[in-house]
Specification:
Length: 74
C-alpha cells in the first residue's frame, strides 16, 4: 500500500539533491496509489525539472514503492 509516510521517506532522501540546485519538492497528497508533489524554488520553470521529476524522483519512488502507479505535479 502506498502511504504518505512511505513516499515522504523517499522524498526526504532525494530532497538534498534537489535543494543543492536551489529547488525543493513538497508532497501534497497520496491517494489511489498516486503521489502528488509540488516543485518550488529554482525548480519552478526550470527546463530540466520535468526530466529530474520523472527520470529521477518518479523512478526512485517506483523502485522503492513498486505499487506506486503515478507521480503527479500540481
Amino acid at each position: 500500500m502506498v502511504t504518505r509516510e512511505r513516499v515522504q521517506s523517499v522524498l526526504d532522501r532525494i530532497r538534498p539533491l534537489i535543494q543543492s540546485d536551489g529547488g525543493d519538492i513538497e508532497l501534497v497528497d497520496v491517494t489511489d496509489n498516486k503521489a502528488k508533489v509540488r516543485l518550488t524554488g529554482n525548480c519552478v520553470g526550470c527546463p530540466s525539472a520535468q526530466m529530474t521529476l520523472y527520470f529521477g524522483v518518479e523512478a526512485t519512488l517506483k523502485d522503492e514503492i513498486p505499487e506506486l502507479e503515478e507521480l503527479l505535479v500540481v
